[in-house]
Fold:
Amino acid sequence: INELSASTEEQTETRLGLENSVKKLETEVAEVRKIVSNLALKGSELKMRVENVIEKADHEFNIPEDDLQTTDVNDVDRDEVTSRLAYLRGELGRIGDVNMSALDEFEEVNERYEFLSAQHTDLVSSITTLRKTIDNINATTGRMFNEAFKTISENFESAFKRLFGGGRAEMRLIEVEGKADLGIEIFAQPPGKKIQSMMLLSAGEKAMTAISLLFAVFLVKPSPFCLLDEVDAPLDEANIFRFRDMLMEMKEKTQFIIITHSQKTMSFAERLYGVTQEEKGVSKILAVNLVDKERDVALAVA
Structure:
C-alpha cells in the first residue's frame, strides 16, 4: 500500500507537471495563433495594396504588371519622384475633368472647319479670278479709252476748224486732285486769238466749241437721236451756216432734234413742229413737212 501510494503521488506530480506544460503550450499556441492572425490580416492588406498599386499603375500611368515585376526601384530617388508626382498631379488638376464627348465634338468642329476651309479656298480663288478679270477689263478699257480719246481729239480739232473757219483746238488729260481718274481739259484757239482754256471763251465760242466736241464724239460712235436745245442762240449767221453744213453731213446716221428760235436754223430743217395760239389761251401744235416728196421720188426714178 505504501509503495502504491508513493507511485500514485509520483504519477500525480507527473500529471500536474504535464498539465502545467500543456497550459504553457496552449498559452504559447494562443499567442502564436494571434500572431498568425495578425500576419494573415497584414498579408491581406499588403495583397490588396499590391493589387491597388498594379491597377493604379495600369490605369493611371499605363505601366503593365510585367514591367512592375522587372523594375528595380532601389536606385529611385523617393523625394524626387514624390516632387515630380505632385507637379504632374497639379498639371492634371489644371487640365480639369476629362470630356468624354470631346472626340464627337472634335469630329463636328473638324467637319465644319473643313467645310469653311473649302469655302475659303473657293472665295480666294474667286477673288483672284475677279482681280484678273478686273485687271483685264481695266487694261482693255484703258486701251479703248486711249484709242477713242485720240480719235475724238483728232475729230474735235477737225470739227472746230470747220465750225470756226480756222483756228485750232485740243483736248488734254489732266490729274484731278483727290481723284484717281484723269480729267479732261479743253483748250481752244479761235482764229485771231491765242490758245486758252474753254472757260475763258465767249458764250458763242463756248457753244461752238461744245458743238465741235459733240460732233467729234458722234463721228466715233453715232447716236440714233440727238436733242439740241438752243445751242444756236449765241451763234452769228456765218457760224449757223457752218453748223448747218456739219448737220447735213451727219444726219445720215443721226436724227437731230433742235429746239430753236432762229429762223436761219429753221430754214434748213426737214420738219418743223411748233406751238401757236390762234385764240387767246388756247395752244395749238403745228407740224410742217419741208421735204418735197414728189421731187425726191422723181430724183430716185431718174
Remarks:
- DSSP finds eight helices and seven strands in the chain.
- Helices lie at 2-59, 65-70, 78-95, 102-164, 203-220, 237-250, 263-267, 293-301.
